[in-house]
Write a structure and sequence with these properties.
Arc Repressor Mutant, subunit A, Ribosomal Protein S5, domain 2, 6-stranded mixed β-sheet, single chain
Length: 706
């Protein structure tokens, strides 16, 4: 006899905005330490966290993997292509959720931990309103703590919006469509360690207030997590650590401290800095080689590397905080040298070259018609049209790396979307500028803040390519160096300062307001007050960069590149669209072929009768327009035209005129006094001149033209 399976499900609920957050554990995924299912509104995720018990103890980093697994069924969709209905490679949205979740969690693990840790996020239900992004952060934090994996504090997250003059906590996707500010925050109680925001020229004061509100929401979410965790019996896991001791640090410091001044001497040259870094690291490794080789010694090769990095970080921080002179000789607020150029490459529809010291980005603009818009079709979107696209590419040579290009990586996806988010609010609407716009930012040299250079280069490319932007956009990356007594903000950080610093704060905008923000930090969190100061400093530096860019080009070019296509927009009656397209697209295919072919001309329609003629050659566009007009022209009495005989009968001749329209010329209208069989006068394929006599019950009445 079968008996009912018994299990101990632990649940907890709390209210947010009149909706309950439900936590549940003990029901699903029994072989993980704990698995948590959490539901907010009707979005539900299953999250597990697993730590490798026997890792490679000599590695010098912690392999943290966030695996967001798309589930079409969660949105009630079958999805996929005609022949493949299985979820395959992750969409860009899934990749971005992984990055969003990783950033606030990573600083919370103990220093030196090397255990592989994998967080798997499986959407079970999506309501189309609550984004899984913030929920993934909250649920992952809870899953780590439930599993007993070393993790210092609960991490909360929220999405704050500013819509119609009001601040909205846990903003929905529908509300976000009309939002001036869409702000994603994460952190622990009392501080923030991750920011991701898109905005439509948002006033900095609105952003500041939203961050204050967001901190209160994060604090509340952390308390909700803690209340749930108190219901569980958690067994702490012991991590494997690979870290030097204070005594080892002091020993290495005694060997290398004075020699580290060489790093300060090389200053601005990134390649020279990297070479000097490697040289000094090898020198320390040589000095400690005997101890590394001694089986009884605590020294290992990985500890030498870790200790050397800590020494460099400590040395450069100490030097800056005591002298206020940076590695490259700049003051804290000084921006590096900049060079801007447009139209540097022939045949491109527009190019922008932005060079900030050793960071180089060359952005390419490509314009085409509405049919080239990207259709988003994944777990959350169904055939949603995207007519502005920005892609970021960083080939290995841009960072002096000897490796092959192996497809788009997560970093490229994230940086590309950040720049796209920064520029999107300034893109003209389809009614004003009907083109599909694609930008590709090629990173030719990486010396820090390539994503912000992509924003600047793309702005230059669009202005040079005649795109009527609402306003030019620039971006800047800020950093911070701190010790127990000081937290000093750095303007326009370079790669080295990102490497040894505490944070990377990126901000973009126009002269009128902010369009995007992204922040990562190596710290457990940063106070809201310090972030408000960061916003003011960022905005000032970003405006300085924008003013310099505008010296090269201040407004859209007066005319397009001769290699860019033209678009003519016309209106026809909605019921005429079917006539122009023809059965099985036969008519529109003929029109395009007679207008120099599909590689030159493309024609798109909308339900309201709008016709978009995209043509690489103006003459081809004009030809296509005239052919459409010819297809739709209604012949009037007295019109004469030449047709082709398609069929003959005793009672008359069938003649094709006007793009496949076939009409009968009755035997009595052939101009003969009397004939018994009209088919004796013409054969199929003959040309025949006809004249319109009029219309009778919707049928064209023709006679042989005299």
């Amino acid at each position: 006899m079968i008996t009912k399976k018994e299990f101990n499900e632990i649940t907890h609920s709390a209210s947010r905005q009149g909706k309950d957050i439900h936590f549940s554990a003990g029901k699903f995924a029994p072989h993980s330490e704990w698995a948590v299912t959490i539901t907010f509104w009707e979005t539900s995720l299953l999250v597990t966290a697993i730590m490798e018990k026997d890792p490679d103890s000599d590695r010098d980093f912690m392999p943290l993997a966030i695996d967001f697994r798309e589930s079409w069924y969660a949105a009630g969709k079958i999805g996929g292509g005609r022949f493949n209905k299985r979820e395959w490679r992750p969409s860009d949205e899934a990749v971005l959720y992984c990055r969003l979740t990783d950033r606030p969690l990573r600083p919370m693990f103990p220093k030196g931990m090397v255990n592989d840790t994998v967080i798997t996020i499986s959407p079970l239900s999506l309501d189309g309103e609550i984004s899984p992004g913030e929920l993934s952060i909250i649920w992952s934090s809870a899953a780590l703590l439930m599993a007993g994996i070393p993790f210092e504090w609960p991490v909360g997250a929220c999405r704050i919006g500013y819509v119609d003059g009001e601040y909205i906590t846990h903003m929905t996707d529908s509300q976000a469509k009309n939002a001036i500010l869409d702000l994603h925050l994460a952190g622990k109680k009392g501080s923030i360690n991750m920011i991701e925001a898109g905005a439509n020229e948002c006033d900095p004061e609105i952003l500041k207030q939203a961050m204050k509100i967001g901190q209160t929401v994060i604090d509340e979410i952390c308390d909700i997590q803690s209340a749930f965790l108190d219901l569980l019996t958690i067994t702490p896991q012991t991590p494997t650590k690979n870290i030097y001791t204070p005594e080892m640090f002091d020993q290495a410091k005694g060997i290398m401290w004075d020699k580290l001044a060489k790093l300060q001497e090389v200053g601005e040259d990134k390649k020279q800095f990297d070479a000097t870094y490697d040289e000094l690291q090898d020198e320390l490794a040589t000095a400690l080689a005997d101890e590394v080789a001694d089986a009884d010694s605590a020294w290992t090769s990985s500890k030498v590397k870790g200790c050397f990095f800590a020494l460099v970080k400590d040395f450069l921080r100490t030097h800056f905080l005591s002298t206020w002179v940076r590695v490259d000789g700049r003051s804290a607020e000084q921006i590096r040298q900049i060079y801007c150029e447009v139209n540097a490459i022939p045949r491109a529809h527009g190019t922008g070259f932005f060079w900030r010291w050793d960071t180089q980005v060359l952005s390419f603009l490509t314009l085409w018609g509405p049919s080239d818009a990207q259709l988003l079709d994944n777990m959350e979107y169904h055939d949603e049209e995207k007519r502005f696209i920005h892609h970021y590419k960083m080939p290995p040579f841009g960072n002096n790396e000897a490796r092959m290009i192996r497809g788009t990586n997560r970093r490229e996806t994230g940086h590309g979307r950040l720049a796209e988010k920064a520029l999107l609010p300034m893109i003209p609407g389809k009614d004003e500028f009907p083109y599909t716009i694609r930008l590709v930012s090629e990173v030719l040299g990486s010396g820090g803040s390539t994503s912000m250079a992509s924003v600047c280069g793309s702005t230059l490319a669009m202005l040079s390519g005649w795109v009527p932007m609402r306003a030019p956009v620039s971006g800047i990356a800020m950093g911070m160096m701190s010790n127990d007594d000081q937290q000093v903000i750095l303007t326009d950080i370079k790669g080295t300062e990102d490497f040894i610093g505490d944070m990377d704060f990126k901000l973009t905008g126009t002269s009128n307001g902010i369009t995007a923000i992204q922040m990562d930090t190596k710290l457990k969190g940063i106070s809201v007050d310090k972030l408000l100061e960061m916003i003011d400093r960022s905005n000032s530096g970003r405006q300085e960069i924008l003013d310099y860019m505008l010296l090269t080009i201040a407004e859209p070019a007066q005319e397009m590149s001769p290699y860019a296509p033209s678009i003519e927009v016309h209106k026809i009656k909605p019921e005429q669209v079917r006539t122009v397209i023809g059965p099985g697209w036969s008519m529109i295919t003929k029109i395009i072929e007679k207008s120099w072919g599909s590689d030159v001309v493309n024609i798109d329609f909308e339900d309201d009768g709008s016709v978009y003629i995209t043509a690489k050659d103006q003459a081809a566009g004009t030809k296509a327009r005239s052919l459409i007009q010819e297809v739709l022209r209604v012949p009037t009495k007295g019109d004469k035209m030449t047709g082709k005989v398609t069929r003959t009968e005793a009672y008359g001749i069938f003649v094709e005129i006007q793009w496949g329209n076939v009409w009968l010329v009755h035997v009595k209208n052939l101009g003969q006094w009397f004939i018994e069989d009209a088919s004796t006068l013409y054969k199929v394929g003959d040309a025949m001149d006809v004249e319109v006599m009029g219309m009778d019950k919707g049928k064209l009445q023709l006679k042989k033209a005299s």
